[in-house]
């Protein structure tokens, strides 16, 4: 089979099919970052999994899912009769087939998360075969670099100041602080002290975002807390207030968005495009944050982003995942005009420690969007093996 080189791409309709031979997955374990959850993540917990789609052409695509790897392994087994021998050059059709034929098993859970990783991998294959980056395949290149915001856990004020300063020294110019003690101790003065410390460390010239993390188990606060907190945040030039309310409280989100002096963001726990319709049509968000490794993959993410644009809602992907998730978000940022930020976990080995060439900030704190074929990144077999005992099957 003959494949094209970058700059000499052809329509996939003129290419012979590239058949899915097998799909392999492995959890990442041993260095899972803390999430600030009430039931805190332990290093040995599985919260992310890598998926490899192997084809009869010897081309492999990679994706990741934000869920327990054991669920992804089970999901792949369930989906196998549907993807076996399918054409890997048709990611939207193939993944929609997977969605449509499994909805009755539960739309939005394990299978949706698994399909997310498969879809990302299929786009990676399509890009590798056509010689184009995924962003161009999605319709265009609005930007060649994008600003990452460093996603950090909230800490006690003195430690919060030190942590933000540490990542500012590494070159980041945008920061998001979230979860931890914020909103969980019934102490408004502590909440403000944390934000003040982060703002002082970030500097007035840099972006600061706040994530309450109200999708945490047994979140204790409601609408009045969120409104009071939003008023406090405006004094610190906060770019958005994320997950300020329980994730199903759509009426409260609508009320908060109308009253809040700072933009309201959310949507990371929603999956499939259909679940976003009431949130967008009712005006619950200023910024919508689907997660490409949970929501259904790139195919689903871009439909949500287009829909958000039609409702005047900004799209910024949620990206608390892996280097493959970051790569997918970077390609999406290339393809959508208002996606001017990507999330980047501060200090996660699953972001910093699995690529052959890790992401590097430029002097202005931006990431270059890879223009190599597919996702534009390459996994390092030996690095992945540090966090996945059976990593070899990803590289067959």
Beta strand count? 12
Q: Which range does the strand content fall in?
A: 5-15%
Q: Compute the number of helices.
A: 13
- The share of residues in helices is 25-40%
CATH architecture annotation of the largest domain: Alpha-Beta Barrel
Poorly predicted ranges: 5-12
Quaternary form: single chain
Would you list the SSEs in sequence order as H and E? Answer: EEEHHHHEHEHEHEHEHEHEHEHEH
Number of domains: 2
CATH superfamily of the largest domain: Enolase-like C-terminal domain
Query: Which fold name corresponds to the CATH topology of the largest domain?
Result: TIM Barrel
The rough form would be described as globular
Average of pLDDT: 95
Termini Cα gap: 19 Å
CATH class designation of the largest domain: Alpha Beta
Rg over alpha carbons: 20 Å
Biggest sheet statistics: 9 strands, mixed
- Find the structural class using helix and strand composition: alpha/beta
GO molecular function, one term: hydro-lyase activity
Keywords: Magnesium, Metal-binding
Domain Mandelate racemase/muconate lactonizing enzyme C-terminal: 157-263
Organism: Microvirga alba
Question: Any overview of this molecule?
Answer:
This protein is 35% helix and 15% strand. The chain has 396 residues and is of the alpha/beta class. The protein has 2 domains: 12-135 and 383-395, Enolase-like, N-terminal domain (Enolase-like, domain 1, 2-Layer Sandwich), CATH 3.30.390.10; 139-379, Enolase-like C-terminal domain (TIM Barrel, Alpha-Beta Barrel). The strands form 2 sheets. Strands 4, 5, 6, 7, 8, 9, 10, 11 and 12 form a 9-stranded mixed beta sheet that branches. The model is unreliable at 5-12 (pLDDT under 50).
């Amino acid at each position: 089979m003959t494949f094209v080189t970058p700059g000499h791409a052809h329509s996939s309709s003129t290419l012979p099919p590239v058949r899915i031979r097998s799909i392999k997955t492995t959890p990442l374990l041993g260095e899972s970052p803390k999430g600030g959850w009430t039931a805190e993540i332990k290093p040995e917990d599985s919260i992310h999994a890598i998926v490899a789609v192997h084809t009869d052409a010897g081309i492999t695509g990679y994706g990741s899912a934000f869920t327990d790897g054991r669920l992804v392994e089970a999901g792949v087994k369930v989906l196998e009769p549907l993807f076996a021998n399918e054409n890997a050059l048709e990611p939207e059709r193939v993944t929609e087939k997977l969605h449509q034929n499994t909805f009755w098993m539960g739309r939005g859970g394990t299978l949706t998360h698994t399909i997310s990783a498969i879809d990302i991998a299929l786009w990676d294959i399509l890009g590798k075969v056509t010689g184009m980056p995924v962003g161009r395949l999605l319709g265009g290149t609005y930007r060649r670099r994008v600003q990452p915001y460093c996603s950090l856990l909230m800490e006690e004020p003195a430690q919060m100041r030190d942590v933000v300063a540490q990542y500012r020294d590494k070159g980041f110019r945008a920061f998001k602080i979230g979860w931890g003690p914020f909103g969980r101790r019934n102490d408004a003065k502590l909440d403000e002290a944390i934000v003040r410390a982060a703002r002082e460390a970030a500097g007035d010239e840099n972006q600061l975002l706040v994530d309450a993390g109200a999708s945490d188990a047994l979140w204790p606060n409601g609408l009045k807390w969120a409104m009071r907190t939003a008023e406090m945040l405006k004094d610190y030039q906060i770019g958005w207030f994320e997950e300020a309310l329980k994730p199903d409280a759509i009426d409260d989100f609508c009320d908060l968005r109308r009253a809040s002096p700072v933009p309201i963001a959310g949507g990371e726990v929603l999956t499939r495009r259909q679940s976003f319709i009431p949130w967008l049509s009712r005006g619950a968000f200023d910024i919508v944050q689907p997660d490409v490794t949970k929501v259904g993959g790139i195919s689903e993410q871009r439909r949500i982003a287009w829909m958000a644009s039609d409702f005047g809602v900004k799209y910024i992907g949620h990206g608390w995942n892996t280097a493959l998730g970051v790569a997918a978000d970077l390609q999406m940022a290339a393809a959508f005009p208002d996606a001017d930020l990507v999330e980047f976990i501060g200090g996660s080995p699953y972001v910093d420690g699995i690529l052959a060439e890790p992401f590097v900030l430029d002097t202005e704190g931006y990431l270059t969007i890879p223009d190599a074929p597919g996702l534009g990144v390459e996994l390092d077999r030996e690095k992945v093996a540090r966090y996945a005992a059976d990593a070899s099957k990803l590289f067959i």
